[in-house]
Amino acid sequence: MLKNVKILGLIVFIFLFAMCNQKSKNDSNKETILKGSVDITVDETIKPIVDDQVAVFEGTYYDAKVSIKAKSEAELINDLLSGKSKVVITARDLTKNENDKFEKLKINPRITPFATDAIAFISNKSNNDTLIALQTVIDFMKGIPNSRIKGLVFDNPNSSTVRFMKDLAKVKDIPVENVFSFKTNDEVIKFVSENDGMIGVVGVNWLSQPSPELQDVVHDLNVLSVKGLNGKEYYSPTQNDIAEQKYPLARKLFVINCQGYAGLGMGFASFVAGDIGQRIVLKSGLMPIRTPGRKLQIRNKIMNDKE
């Protein structure tokens, strides 16, 4: 009898140990704002800055894994609305119709602005004219020919750059003739560098942070200064002109999180909008939403290093 009790006690102990071990394992795999994994769909035109943010975020929080997938704006918004993607990074806020759809689904998207980006016009280095009026590009998109432009080159028919320029020109479709589109910004950059008279339309982040294979190609391009629709001066997509709101093709960047719980998507959004993330934006050549503070050390006595 005593033997049976000991055996039964041993079985209960093993069972309880196994349950506690399983619970501990489940807890360790649970996603939090700083632990676990998350898939984020990114507008292809702003992928370089997001890659930088992910590298530092994962290097800071070793238990966090962020997987990036770059898509056109139309594709990532469709993925977000269908529930295929829970966290996206875009070059625009949600529209009223999109917000209404989420409201019907009883989903409250968390939207975090974190930077100001810009669309840039580029041309071949052989083109000595580095100035262009925005009205000239808009007229070309309306089908009005111009000797200044042989062709406009976009990254993708469904991209944020195409949508942005269509909204400016107030056209439903872009012209079929003399308008070219590829799949990515790097393809646009390479094509324009090899073809005279073409005006490329790209996210400025691809120029301020070119990949190693694109660095030499970017040197063979002119980044054009642009005159706004109501302006008289020409401004470049530099950090300074973007900050002073002089450049006419600036746009804000957003993290849109529809996870519905305090997961890694929320943690990443907080990171990019926080001090470290904003410093990464500043270093990239874009404009952070909040300028990171600087710590000054005040000394009563100046020490001579040579002494």
UniProtKB/TrEMBL annotation:
Entry keyword annotation includes Signal: yes
Domain PBP: 36-274
Keyword flag Signal: yes
One Pfam family of this chain: PBP_like_2
Alphabetical UniProt keywords: Signal
Taxonomic superkingdom: Bacteria
Protein name per UniProt: Phosphate ABC transporter substrate-binding protein
Protein's organism: Flavobacterium hydrophilum
